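**Paired protein data**
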Amino acid sequence: MGFFAYDGFQQEGDRRCFLFRVDEKGAPSTLFSIRIDLGLLVKNRIPMQSAPMFCLNLLTEASHGEPGSLDRLQSYTVVPEDFQKIHLERQRQAAEKLSKKPYRRPFRSPASSSNLRLGSALNSAWTQAPRITPAI
């Protein structure tokens, strides 16, 4: 199988039809048109700029799959089930993010030129300060 080349898109009402071409040596070009309802992109939080890559992933997966699975994509309309892989990946990333400890910046000591003093020196100076008692 050759490589997929993006040939642009056509707007068909509330659908966008993405066009791809496959050039193989010694064979005529094969055209693929994949239509996506724009509402599905919004519902599945896929940016419009990522839609051609989403279609390319569908084509690539089909080309590595069973024989004949690529043929069904020559004129294909994306269905909600096609987004399942994206949803699973997002869930995996969210679970991974929750399992990690939050990033904590390491504590930096103040510069030597700073008047800020931390630790026991501050506490001992405070406790050793003379107490003022009111005269009665």
About this structure: Residues 3-80 form one domain. Strands lie at 3-12, 15-23, 30-37, 75-77. The chain has a mean pLDDT of 84. The radius of gyration is 31 Å.
